[in-house]
Amino acid sequence: GVKRDLSGKHVLITAGPTVEPIDPVRYISNHSSGKTGYAIAKAAALRGAKVTLVSGPVSLPKPEGVDVVRVKTAVQMLEACEAAFETADISLFAAAVADMRPEHVADCKLKKGQADADLGTIKLVENPDILKTLASRKGPHQVVVGFAAETNDVIANAQKKLEKKKADVIVANRVGEGLAFGTDDNTVFFVDHEEVEELPTMSKSRLADVILDRALEYV
Ligand code: PMT
């Protein structure tokens, strides 16, 4: 049977991509499928947690026993997380949040080479960092698990994110053609202030339980 070791706990999870509109028909986004975050949400619910899953646009069914808050943009994702974070015992930030968004969302479809609405020059501004914003408000009994998606220098970059974003642990994965985004399996490292642990390749559903086990070590 499944151990109910998360009963009485509130778990917050972000999943999927964010989608940042350019004009009524175009957007900036990435290849996150939501599989990782949804697997964690499902596993946490099975282990007895009250689960809030803040999800960008994905095509996955709602996991049973999970409260899903659907959002599109990073700003909306932050707002939805702020409401849940205060009572969350464990928060896991698996979403691939767009770092930048178009400064203005055009009312009409942009055209090539049009003086006032040129598709060739979209000015971007920085999105809020959801993990960093919330981890800075973390109380002593709250656990924060960040992720790091890296094409190169996986460990060193994850260590930088651990410090900068004030997470308890970072789940680091290599990304690129055929890696991590949208796959059913993943190979990750746990990077915390003491050590780096390389995990064997496993399914995202198995990984979900392993990540929750690890998170419980910081409670
Ligand atoms: O959804 P899948 O298809 O299963 O793919 C899984 C995954 C590759 C998306 C997942 O394993 C993963 O790595 N998620 C984090 C992706 C990411 O955006 O990483 P990052 O290195 O850019 O960001 C670092 C951390 O800060 C992440 O926890 C991210 O959620 C968070 N962040 C980043 C930017 C931002 N504006 N706000 C954030 O909260």
TrEMBL record:
<feature type="binding site">
    <location>
        <position position="165"/>
    </location>
    <ligand>
        <name>CTP</name>
    </ligand>
</feature>
<dbReference type="GO" id="GO:0015937">
    <property type="term" value="P:coenzyme A biosynthetic process"/>
</dbReference>
<dbReference type="GO" id="GO:0010181">
    <property type="term" value="F:FMN binding"/>
</dbReference>
<comment type="pathway">
    <text>Cofactor biosynthesis; coenzyme A biosynthesis; CoA from (R)-pantothenate: step 2/5.</text>
</comment>
<keyword id="KW-0456">Lyase</keyword>
<comment type="function">
    <text>Catalyzes two steps in the biosynthesis of coenzyme A. In the first step cysteine is conjugated to 4'-phosphopantothenate to form 4-phosphopantothenoylcysteine, in the latter compound is decarboxylated to form 4'-phosphopantotheine.</text>
</comment>
<feature type="binding site">
    <location>
        <position position="161"/>
    </location>
    <ligand>
        <name>CTP</name>
    </ligand>
</feature>
<dbReference type="GO" id="GO:0004633">
    <property type="term" value="F:phosphopantothenoylcysteine decarboxylase activity"/>
</dbReference>
<comment type="similarity">
    <text>In the N-terminal section; belongs to the HFCD (homo-oligomeric flavin containing Cys decarboxylase) superfamily.</text>
</comment>
<dbReference type="GO" id="GO:0071513">
    <property type="term" value="C:phosphopantothenoylcysteine decarboxylase complex"/>
</dbReference>
<feature type="binding site">
    <location>
        <position position="147"/>
    </location>
    <ligand>
        <name>CTP</name>
    </ligand>
</feature>
<feature type="region of interest" description="Phosphopantothenate--cysteine ligase">
    <location>
        <begin position="11"/>
        <end position="219"/>
    </location>
</feature>
<protein>
    <recommendedName>
        <fullName>Coenzyme A biosynthesis bifunctional protein CoaBC</fullName>
        <ecNumber>4.1.1.36</ecNumber>
        <ecNumber>6.3.2.5</ecNumber>
    </recommendedName>
</protein>
<dbReference type="GO" id="GO:0046872">
    <property type="term" value="F:metal ion binding"/>
</dbReference>
<dbReference type="GO" id="GO:0015941">
    <property type="term" value="P:pantothenate catabolic process"/>
</dbReference>
<feature type="domain" description="DNA/pantothenate metabolism flavoprotein C-terminal">
    <location>
        <begin position="6"/>
        <end position="216"/>
    </location>
</feature>
<comment type="function">
    <text>Catalyzes two sequential steps in the biosynthesis of coenzyme A. In the first step cysteine is conjugated to 4'-phosphopantothenate to form 4-phosphopantothenoylcysteine. In the second step the latter compound is decarboxylated to form 4'-phosphopantotheine.</text>
</comment>
<comment type="pathway">
    <text>Cofactor biosynthesis; coenzyme A biosynthesis; CoA from (R)-pantothenate: step 3/5.</text>
</comment>
<keyword id="KW-0460">Magnesium</keyword>
<keyword id="KW-0436">Ligase</keyword>
<keyword id="KW-0285">Flavoprotein</keyword>
<keyword id="KW-0210">Decarboxylase</keyword>
<feature type="binding site">
    <location>
        <position position="99"/>
    </location>
    <ligand>
        <name>CTP</name>
    </ligand>
</feature>
<feature type="binding site">
    <location>
        <position position="109"/>
    </location>
    <ligand>
        <name>CTP</name>
    </ligand>
</feature>
<feature type="binding site">
    <location>
        <begin position="128"/>
        <end position="131"/>
    </location>
    <ligand>
        <name>CTP</name>
    </ligand>
</feature>
<keyword id="KW-0511">Multifunctional enzyme</keyword>
<keyword id="KW-0288">FMN</keyword>
<dbReference type="GO" id="GO:0004632">
    <property type="term" value="F:phosphopantothenate--cysteine ligase activity"/>
</dbReference>
<keyword id="KW-0479">Metal-binding</keyword>
<comment type="similarity">
    <text>In the C-terminal section; belongs to the PPC synthetase family.</text>
</comment>
